[in-house]
Design brief:
single chain, 13 helices, 82% helix, elongated
Amino acid sequence: MQIYYMKKEKISIPVSTVILMIVTITYKLVLVVIGIGVAVFGRGFVHTYLQGILPVFYLGLALNIFCVTFMTILVFHPLFAKAIMVKGLKVLERIHLMKKKENRLRKLEDSMDTYRDTAAYLKNNPMVIVKVIGITFVQRMALFAVTWFVYQSFGLHGTGFWEILFLQAVISVSVDMLPLPGGMGISETLFLTIFRPVFGTLLLPGMVLSRGLGYYGELLISAIFTVAAQLTIGQEKKKKA
């Protein structure tokens, strides 16, 4: 969807692909850093809160590490990415999911040249990556902090800001790579498991409010902006044409 709207703004697909991959890498890198930090340095934290979900947590962490590593290789080794794309195209043609056309391969190779140039720019300008990581880190921390504000709104005390923030981060680490839209179902289950000693008798209301603000509210806002984008992006250019 993002590539579609970027295309309407005259941003080529190879360029938008690299940009979105960088955003995805930094988005998941924050989770990887937090997950490794909790696993290595937070043994007491793990023993207190995570005993019941350790297999899911370690699986989610491993999948995120693999995803970040693989996507980083694709971005900064465009020749490898090009080889994968060409091989994938040939496989699709061989199993007759796509008709064989010579110009399709040529267009793909031209697109990958643009992809390579964009990757080279990012490689030669590391401060762009640093800034994206910084912005993404702040965004993720703000989202995780929603649960702490919910905790405070109930007038509860006894658990610190960072403990609650890292508990919410652990849920994201655990479910982010699972094939479930928004981690629906599993996120709520993990919340009810690890936040039980934090919210006590207010566990269920805390889960509903935290999840509602942190995911479903965000989903609603995204839907509104998607409708606005559909109605506005590209319209001015159409009028000029």
